[in-house]
User: Which sequence fits this backbone?
């Protein structure tokens, strides 16, 4: 690939930066997302434990709350990932739901 060859990287500083960032992403040193602490429960049902057990089944007409912690790796370090366009797809036999997740006030 001549784009990231020694000659091309020495000839153009922007090309060198691009290739360095590309390599960092390819080797998962930066730009990697991870989701942790996934939890869900029926809306309005209080959670009495620090980590609520996730129900195995929901019924028709149940409203569900879903929580997730998202992080992004930047320069080898995990940091909170802030975005307003993360989507969740919750699938039953029918119908299919795809909704945008909302950030809770005061969280990262």
Assistant:
């Amino acid at each position: 690939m001549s784009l990231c060859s020694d000659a091309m990287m020495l000839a153009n500083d922007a090309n060198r930066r691009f290739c360095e960032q590309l390599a960092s992403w390819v080797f998962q040193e930066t730009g990697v997302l991870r989701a942790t602490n996934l939890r869900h429960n029926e809306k309005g049902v209080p959670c009495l434990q620090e980590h609520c057990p996730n129900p195995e089944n929901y019924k028709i007409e149940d409203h569900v709350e879903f929580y997730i912690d998202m992080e992004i790796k930047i320069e080898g370090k995990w940091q909170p990932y802030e975005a307003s366009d993360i989507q969740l797809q919750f699938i039953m036999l029918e119908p299919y739901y795809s909704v945008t997740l909302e950030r809770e006030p005061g969280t990262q």
